[in-house]
Amino acid sequence: MELGRVLRRKIVVLDGAMGTELIARGNKGVLELLNVDAPAEVEQVHEAYLRAGADIITTNTTCADSLCLKEHCLQERSYELARAGAEVARRVADRFSTTETPRFVAGSVGPTSRNVTLANDTSADEVAQSYATVIQGLIDGGVDMLLIETAMDSQNVKIAVEQARKLSPTMPIIVSAVLSRIEGRVASGATIKQFLEDIPTAELFAVGFNCTMATKHLEKALKSVAEFSKLPLVVYPSLSAVGESAAQFVKPLDLLARAGLLNIVGGCCGTTPAHIEHLSKAVARWRPRKTE
Fold first, then answer.
1. Per the CB 3.0–4.6 Å rule, which of 67, 99, 180, 258 could disulfide with 185?
2. Domain residues of the chain, as ranges?
3. Under a CB-based contact definition with an 8 Å cutoff, are residues 105 and 57 in contact?
């Protein structure tokens, strides 16, 4: 995959938040509906991140799975919304992509609204079908990779990866987990080591963390992953506080890049094109983590 070649020469920049950016622009309700009802709104956000220096844009599909959509009686539209979200991102990425600066689309696969380990009102089969539908839509819409993000339950991750592999044996898969406030653990309470042992890392293209504040825990978490895996590392934290400036947001990530701990970096909840622009300029000075 061409992304692998790019990763060997630079730290690749992921985009920032989609949901909070759409809301800031006056949108509300089920944001995934915009992929069909108002695709221009989504395109504008993708374009803003690409102009800011993002190499990868993520689809507006984090809550496009049937379990999330069921709460709005929209579960039958999961495939439609996922495919439309992928097609919107694909069109924009292709417009901005050049031979020297290729742009990529990551299909966002959220955690659904149920964790298999804890939920007593769903089954593993239902979760698997939910993942399969949204993943099929993303693949058919033309994504370059799948981003299983905001992961908390290793069982959900295993199911999502399994469904992805059934649908596409070669599609690159990235898994990004949420860190707990307890150092060294993910949101489910499992240690980082246990989480990695419980998910099929052999099937992954990259692994890391998102929706996590850029704190000292992040550096220790990355070092912990690096001890167990040679996979590329991805990090895209949320803002530590409402209104956090681009300079404040970027500072800890710049230190991680300088320490040689990053391969893919971006922003999660609350981040804007301004944060990504500042970030892309900062990390351009540093070499990516060696994975070979």
1. 180
2. 2-283
3. yes
